[in-house]
Protein backbone atom coordinates (compact mmCIF):
# COMPACT_ATOMS: atom_id res chain seq x y z
CA UNK A 1 0.00 0.00 0.00
CA UNK A 2 1.44 3.32 -1.04
CA UNK A 3 1.76 5.67 1.98
CA UNK A 4 -0.66 8.57 1.80
CA UNK A 5 -3.28 6.67 -0.19
CA UNK A 6 -6.02 4.96 1.85
CA UNK A 7 -8.65 2.96 -0.04
CA UNK A 8 -8.27 5.20 -3.08
CA UNK A 9 -8.50 8.43 -1.11
CA UNK A 10 -5.58 10.66 -2.01
CA UNK A 11 -4.38 12.81 0.87
CA UNK A 12 -3.64 16.36 -0.20
CA UNK A 13 -2.31 18.75 2.36
CA UNK A 14 -1.52 22.35 1.47
CA UNK A 15 1.81 23.84 2.35
CA UNK A 16 1.72 26.05 5.43
CA UNK A 17 4.28 28.76 6.00
CA UNK A 18 4.84 31.15 8.85
CA UNK A 19 5.40 34.67 7.51
CA UNK A 20 8.45 36.30 9.02
CA UNK A 21 8.95 39.37 6.92
CA UNK A 22 11.28 38.19 4.20
CA UNK A 23 11.67 34.82 5.95
CA UNK A 24 9.40 31.80 5.72
CA UNK A 25 9.56 28.39 7.30
CA UNK A 26 7.73 25.30 6.11
CA UNK A 27 5.95 22.85 8.38
CA UNK A 28 8.43 20.69 10.27
CA UNK A 29 8.46 17.16 11.64
CA UNK A 30 10.84 15.82 14.27
CA UNK A 31 10.86 12.03 14.13
CA UNK A 32 12.43 10.20 17.08
CA UNK A 33 12.98 6.45 17.16
CA UNK A 34 13.05 5.18 20.75
CA UNK A 35 14.39 1.98 22.31
CA UNK A 36 17.56 1.46 20.30
CA UNK A 37 20.01 -0.96 21.91
CA UNK A 38 18.37 -4.31 22.69
CA UNK A 39 18.10 -5.55 19.07
CA UNK A 40 21.01 -5.06 16.66
CA UNK A 41 19.33 -5.85 13.34
CA UNK A 42 16.26 -3.72 14.05
CA UNK A 43 18.49 -0.86 15.18
CA UNK A 44 20.61 -1.07 12.05
CA UNK A 45 17.51 -1.08 9.84
CA UNK A 46 16.01 2.11 11.30
CA UNK A 47 19.37 3.90 11.27
CA UNK A 48 19.44 3.38 7.51
CA UNK A 49 16.14 5.22 7.04
CA UNK A 50 16.58 8.37 4.94
CA UNK A 51 16.74 11.81 6.47
CA UNK A 52 17.76 13.46 9.74
CA UNK A 53 15.98 11.26 12.25
CA UNK A 54 16.84 11.32 15.96
CA UNK A 55 17.55 8.05 17.77
CA UNK A 56 16.99 7.49 21.50
CA UNK A 57 19.34 4.80 22.84
CA UNK A 58 18.71 2.79 25.99
CA UNK A 59 21.91 2.82 28.09
CA UNK A 60 23.85 -0.36 28.85
CA UNK A 61 21.74 -2.51 26.53
CA UNK A 62 23.65 -5.13 24.50
CA UNK A 63 24.06 -3.04 21.33
CA UNK A 64 23.69 0.52 22.65
CA UNK A 65 27.24 1.71 22.08
CA UNK A 66 27.61 -0.02 18.70
CA UNK A 67 24.35 1.46 17.39
CA UNK A 68 25.22 4.92 18.71
CA UNK A 69 28.51 4.80 16.83
CA UNK A 70 26.78 3.50 13.69
CA UNK A 71 24.18 6.26 13.84
CA UNK A 72 26.88 8.90 14.25
CA UNK A 73 28.71 7.46 11.24
CA UNK A 74 25.48 7.91 9.25
CA UNK A 75 25.27 11.52 10.39
CA UNK A 76 22.26 10.83 12.58
CA UNK A 77 21.50 12.40 15.95
CA UNK A 78 21.64 10.41 19.19
CA UNK A 79 19.93 11.11 22.50
CA UNK A 80 19.87 9.14 25.74
CA UNK A 81 16.65 7.22 26.33
CA UNK A 82 16.79 7.47 30.11
CA UNK A 83 14.78 4.77 31.94
CA UNK A 84 12.49 6.42 34.50
CA UNK A 85 10.17 4.96 37.12
CA UNK A 86 6.65 4.14 35.96
CA UNK A 87 3.25 3.73 37.60
CA UNK A 88 3.11 0.02 36.73
CA UNK A 89 6.35 -0.60 38.64
CA UNK A 90 7.92 -2.28 35.61
CA UNK A 91 11.65 -2.97 35.95
CA UNK A 92 13.94 -0.40 34.34
CA UNK A 93 17.25 -2.22 34.14
CA UNK A 94 20.64 -0.49 34.23
CA UNK A 95 20.51 3.29 34.29
CA UNK A 96 17.08 3.34 35.92
CA UNK A 97 16.07 6.58 37.66
CA UNK A 98 13.83 6.17 40.71
CA UNK A 99 12.22 8.71 43.06
CA UNK A 100 13.74 7.05 46.13
CA UNK A 101 17.31 7.90 45.04
CA UNK A 102 19.14 10.73 46.77
CA UNK A 103 20.22 13.68 44.65
CA UNK A 104 23.79 12.40 44.57
CA UNK A 105 22.73 8.85 43.60
CA UNK A 106 20.26 10.14 41.02
CA UNK A 107 22.74 12.39 39.28
CA UNK A 108 25.45 9.73 39.45
CA UNK A 109 23.20 7.21 37.67
CA UNK A 110 22.19 9.74 35.01
CA UNK A 111 25.74 10.94 34.41
CA UNK A 112 26.97 7.37 34.10
CA UNK A 113 24.35 6.68 31.44
CA UNK A 114 25.34 9.83 29.54
CA UNK A 115 29.03 8.94 29.82
CA UNK A 116 28.25 5.63 28.13
CA UNK A 117 26.83 7.48 25.11
CA UNK A 118 29.14 10.42 24.39
CA UNK A 119 27.33 11.05 21.09
CA UNK A 120 24.15 12.12 22.92
CA UNK A 121 22.94 15.66 22.21
CA UNK A 122 19.97 15.39 24.54
CA UNK A 123 17.79 12.96 26.44
CA UNK A 124 14.21 11.81 26.79
CA UNK A 125 12.33 9.57 29.17
CA UNK A 126 11.83 5.84 28.68
CA UNK A 127 8.55 5.08 30.46
CA UNK A 128 8.58 7.62 33.33
CA UNK A 129 4.85 7.85 34.06
CA UNK A 130 5.75 8.08 37.76
CA UNK A 131 9.00 10.06 37.76
CA UNK A 132 8.11 12.75 35.24
CA UNK A 133 5.18 13.93 37.37
CA UNK A 134 7.52 14.60 40.33
CA UNK A 135 9.13 18.02 40.52
CA UNK A 136 12.36 17.41 42.42
CA UNK A 137 13.73 14.48 40.37
CA UNK A 138 12.95 16.33 37.15
CA UNK A 139 14.83 19.40 38.40
CA UNK A 140 17.82 17.13 38.97
CA UNK A 141 17.47 15.90 35.38
CA UNK A 142 17.48 19.47 34.10
CA UNK A 143 20.46 20.42 36.25
CA UNK A 144 22.46 17.61 34.67
CA UNK A 145 21.20 18.66 31.23
CA UNK A 146 22.39 22.22 31.86
CA UNK A 147 25.82 21.07 33.03
CA UNK A 148 26.23 18.97 29.89
CA UNK A 149 24.57 21.42 27.46
CA UNK A 150 21.82 18.98 26.50
CA UNK A 151 18.22 19.41 25.45
CA UNK A 152 15.26 17.47 26.82
CA UNK A 153 12.43 15.77 24.96
CA UNK A 154 9.35 15.10 27.08
CA UNK A 155 7.93 11.85 25.73
CA UNK A 156 4.68 12.64 27.59
CA UNK A 157 3.99 9.12 28.84
CA UNK A 158 1.54 10.69 31.29
CA UNK A 159 -0.73 13.70 30.96
CA UNK A 160 0.49 14.78 34.41
CA UNK A 161 4.12 15.16 33.34
CA UNK A 162 5.93 18.19 34.70
CA UNK A 163 9.08 17.62 32.67
CA UNK A 164 8.55 20.21 29.94
CA UNK A 165 7.42 22.93 32.32
CA UNK A 166 10.39 22.35 34.62
CA UNK A 167 12.76 22.35 31.63
CA UNK A 168 11.40 25.75 30.60
CA UNK A 169 11.75 27.07 34.14
CA UNK A 170 15.35 25.87 34.17
CA UNK A 171 16.01 27.36 30.68
CA UNK A 172 16.70 23.96 29.12
CA UNK A 173 15.80 23.66 25.41
CA UNK A 174 12.79 21.35 25.33
CA UNK A 175 10.47 19.56 22.92
CA UNK A 176 7.23 17.71 23.63
CA UNK A 177 6.01 14.60 21.90
CA UNK A 178 2.74 15.14 20.04
CA UNK A 179 2.17 11.82 18.23
CA UNK A 180 3.04 8.21 19.03
CA UNK A 181 3.53 6.43 15.72
CA UNK A 182 3.17 2.78 16.66
CA UNK A 183 1.27 2.38 19.92
CA UNK A 184 -0.44 -0.40 17.97
CA UNK A 185 2.09 -2.40 15.96
CA UNK A 186 0.20 -2.76 12.69
CA UNK A 187 0.80 -1.25 9.27
CA UNK A 188 -2.64 0.35 9.18
CA UNK A 189 -2.15 2.03 12.56
CA UNK A 190 1.33 3.29 11.68
CA UNK A 191 -0.03 4.79 8.46
CA UNK A 192 -2.96 6.36 10.30
CA UNK A 193 -0.64 7.98 12.84
CA UNK A 194 1.87 9.14 10.23
CA UNK A 195 -0.89 10.87 8.27
CA UNK A 196 -2.20 12.34 11.51
CA UNK A 197 1.28 13.69 12.23
CA UNK A 198 1.35 15.29 8.79
CA UNK A 199 -2.00 16.94 9.48
CA UNK A 200 -0.75 18.27 12.82
CA UNK A 201 2.38 19.69 11.17
CA UNK A 202 0.26 21.41 8.55
CA UNK A 203 -2.18 22.82 11.10
CA UNK A 204 0.28 23.83 13.82
CA UNK A 205 3.53 24.35 11.91
CA UNK A 206 5.43 21.50 13.58
CA UNK A 207 5.01 18.09 15.14
CA UNK A 208 7.20 15.84 17.28
CA UNK A 209 6.65 12.15 16.59
CA UNK A 210 7.98 9.12 18.46
CA UNK A 211 8.20 5.63 16.98
CA UNK A 212 10.09 2.43 17.68
CA UNK A 213 12.38 0.13 15.71
CA UNK A 214 9.64 -2.37 14.94
CA UNK A 215 9.93 -3.98 11.50
CA UNK A 216 6.44 -2.75 10.58
CA UNK A 217 7.39 0.83 11.50
CA UNK A 218 10.67 0.64 9.62
CA UNK A 219 8.97 -0.78 6.52
CA UNK A 220 6.32 1.94 6.49
CA UNK A 221 8.75 4.80 7.06
CA UNK A 222 11.03 3.59 4.28
CA UNK A 223 8.19 4.29 1.86
CA UNK A 224 6.43 7.06 3.78
CA UNK A 225 9.25 9.49 4.52
CA UNK A 226 9.57 10.64 0.88
CA UNK A 227 5.96 11.84 1.15
CA UNK A 228 7.14 14.66 3.41
CA UNK A 229 9.14 16.26 0.61
CA UNK A 230 6.16 16.02 -1.73
CA UNK A 231 4.04 17.92 0.81
CA UNK A 232 6.66 20.55 1.61
CA UNK A 233 7.28 19.30 5.15
CA UNK A 234 10.80 19.53 6.54
CA UNK A 235 12.11 16.51 8.41
CA UNK A 236 14.54 17.92 10.98
CA UNK A 237 16.52 16.51 13.87
CA UNK A 238 15.52 17.48 17.39
CA UNK A 239 18.52 19.77 17.86
CA UNK A 240 18.02 21.42 14.45
CA UNK A 241 14.38 22.12 15.36
CA UNK A 242 15.43 23.73 18.63
CA UNK A 243 18.02 25.88 16.85
CA UNK A 244 15.37 27.01 14.37
CA UNK A 245 13.05 27.87 17.24
CA UNK A 246 15.79 29.92 18.91
CA UNK A 247 16.45 31.75 15.64
CA UNK A 248 12.73 32.45 15.19
CA UNK A 249 12.46 33.79 18.72
CA UNK A 250 15.46 36.04 18.14
CA UNK A 251 13.97 37.28 14.86
CA UNK A 252 10.63 37.99 16.53
CA UNK A 253 12.36 40.02 19.25
CA UNK A 254 14.27 41.96 16.58
CA UNK A 255 11.06 42.68 14.68
CA UNK A 256 9.35 43.84 17.87
CA UNK A 257 12.27 46.13 18.68
CA UNK A 258 12.19 47.50 15.13
CA UNK A 259 8.44 48.15 15.38
CA UNK A 260 8.81 49.88 18.74
CA UNK A 261 11.64 52.03 17.40
CA UNK A 262 9.56 52.98 14.36
CA UNK A 263 6.60 53.88 16.59
CA UNK A 264 8.83 56.03 18.79
CA UNK A 265 10.25 57.83 15.74
CA UNK A 266 6.76 58.50 14.42
CA UNK A 267 5.73 60.03 17.73
CA UNK A 268 8.79 62.30 17.70
CA UNK A 269 8.08 63.46 14.16
CA UNK A 270 4.45 64.23 14.99
CA UNK A 271 5.26 66.10 18.21
CA UNK A 272 4.84 69.89 18.00
CA UNK A 273 7.97 71.99 18.33
TrEMBL record:
Q: Which domain of life is it from?
A: Bacteria
Q: Which InterPro entries match?
A: Divergent_DAC, Glyco_hydro/deAcase_b/a-brl
Return one Gene Ontology term, BP aspect.
carbohydrate metabolic process
Pfam families, per the entry = Polysacc_deac_2
Q: What is this protein called?
A: Divergent polysaccharide deacetylase family protein
- Per the UniProt record, the source organism is Nitrincola iocasae
